[in-house]
Amino acid sequence: MPSDHEVAAGPSAPRRLSAAPTEGQRLHPFSLLFSIGQAARNLLIPGLLVWFAADNNRYELFLMVLFVPATLRALLKYATFRYRFAEGELVMKEGLIFRNERHVPFHRIQNIDWTQNPLHRLLRVASVRVETAGGTEPEAELQVLTVPAAEEMRHRVFEEKRRAGDPAAASLWVPDASEKRELARLGVGDLVLLGLISNRGLAIAAAGLGVAWELDFFDPSKWEEWFAGSLGQFIERVPDTWLWRSTLILAAILTAIVALRLLSVAWALLQFWNFRLAEQESGLRATYGFFTRHTSTIPRPRVQLVTQIESIGQRWVGRRGLRVVTAGGDADDDDQSRRRWLLPIGERKVVARLADLVQPETAAPDLDWQPVEGRAFRRVVKRELLIAVGVLVLPVLWWSAWWGTVVLLTVPWAIWDARARVRRMRWALSGAGFHFRSGLWTHKVSAVRFNKIQTVQCVRSPFDRRYGMATLAVDIAGLGNADHRIHVRYLDSELAESLRVRLANEAATTRFRW
Asked: Which one of 95-109, 122-136, 493-507 scores highest in mean pLDDT?
């Protein structure tokens, strides 16, 4: 049985690429272990938990039946999957009855990254992702290969790209020993600070509540005895006064806040543990993760958008984060979203210098930021007042007229919020790029090079046409729903059209490069 061949050379020695067998190479035999384990985690374990924890039958039990075809599918994929290196392309074949053969030219491959959870590291294997520029998801996921086989794939592909003159290939094929310098490293204190000012604890708590709900944890019959016992006795001992009850409510709120902060800190430590960002010949390499270790390479020529992000918590401590969008990969996938964090938290000067290093063409310390149309405030404040009144009018009519005071309090809040949002929304042009900033509570500043722009549009809604305005929409490759889109709203129609023409001309006169 052919197996993954290894590369004998060390990391600092020149690599000798062995000839691949013409029939192709198999995945590592441990692929069966990981594929069946994933099916068990998604289908078998939830069913077993429901079986032992729930009082009655649940629909999750039917998931256990699907474990059998999932296991058969994993066996079939391992038995039929082959990959090989042909002349200038990566060829992958799989399937028994319906055979699928994919040819991926080396010049289309943008990234070959891998992840390792603790079991991967124990068995010295890795899950490999092959990404191309045009796809919204990885071109291929090879689970699993040995680490030497994964390294050989990366070096074989990008050595060919380097020989073909691709300037981005150097950062992807040069060994780790060739790193120029370390750009950033996050210690425990940085990660604790990131957890304290982030809101990841809410997502973790919501997931925990979902699991508790599935296990009938909120069944009143299970809580009656506990409420009637220790908690009931404690409540009876508390004096029935406004001060004591307010103190108990405040203590419960503070306990929930502290618990959420601790969950956020735990998330930051596990996700970005030992975060390290290093510079290579023409790109950057980031490694991080406590249990699952991520290794991703970000070549500068592949960066489509650079965004500096400051949440309200980061502004309090003088920090900000840096995120980049690269072509290829699933922009909506959560793992890919995390992987594009070039630096999740850092001092403002450090993040600004790093942004200029990634995209030196758009580096401009003294940008002439231009505001949107002055009449935008009227549109935004009308919209927010309508939303506020529409949400609160039902409680006013249903419960009490005292809710009308809440409606009145929303008026000054809506005016302040609309004015601040419009004031924050600005755009600017530099020598080789377009800049856009927005956000009230979370400030975001993005920059895109002219040669990365794919389409430029002027969009006019009926309300835009009524006010003589338009939205300038600048779209790039790889942008996901969670990214900072460069859609400049509330521009004067003539100004938006002139900007569209200028950006389109700039993009047309520069060479588009992935």
From this structure: 493-507
Tell me the mean pLDDT in the region 212-235.
Answer: 60
Residues 6+ apart with CB under 8 A from 199: 260, 264
Question: pLDDT category, 19, cuts 50, 70, 90?
Answer: very low
Helices of type H across 305-454: 312-316, 334-339, 348-358, 376-398, 403-424
CB 323 within 8 A of CB 286: no
pLDDT in tens, 114-164: 888 888 888 888 888 887 765 556 677 888 888 888 888 888 887 777 776
- Cβ atoms of 130 and 103 closer than 8 Å: no
Residue 485 phi, psi dihedral angles, 5° rounding:
-80, 140
Cβ burial of 429 (10 Å; 0-12, 13-18, 19+) is middle
What residues are paired with 278 via a beta bridge?
Answer: 182, 285
How far apart are the C-alpha atoms of 359 and 342, rounded to whole Å? Answer: 13
Task: Say which residue the tokens 């200029």 belong to.
Answer: 356
Query: Token pair for residue 59?
Result: 């629909």
Q: In terms of Cα–Cα distance, which of 130, 172, 435, 157 is closest to 302?
A: 172
Q: Which of 316, 339, 315 is nearest to 444 (CA)?
A: 315
Q: What is the mean pLDDT of the chain?
A: 78
Tally the C-alpha atoms within 13 A of residue 42's C-alpha that lie toward its C-beta: 11
Q: Is the pLDDT of residue 180 over 70?
A: no
Q: Which residues of 303-337 are buried (b: 16+ CB within 10 A; e: fewer)?
A: bbbbbbbbbebbeeeebbbbbbbbbbbbbeeeebb
| CA–CA distance, 449 with 440 (Å, rounded to integer) | 25
Domains with residue ranges and CATH for the chain: 30-178 (no CATH), 194-272 (no CATH), 376-423 (no CATH), 425-514 (2.30.29.30)
Angle at 465 between CA 373 and CA 460, to 5 degrees: 85
Whether the pTM exceeds 0.85: the reply is no
What does residue 232 show for φ and ψ, rounded to 5 degrees? Answer: -60, -40
**What are the residues facing 341 on neighbouring strands?**
323
**How is residue 259 written in tokens?**
């618990």
For position 414, what pLDDT does the model report? 83
- Inform me whether the pLDDT recorded for 496 exceeds 90: yes
Adjacent-strand bridge partners of 279: 181, 284
Instruction: Look up residue 245 and give its two tokens.
Output: 């009850």
Please give the order of strands across the beta sheet that includes 100-105.
82-86, 89-94, 100-105
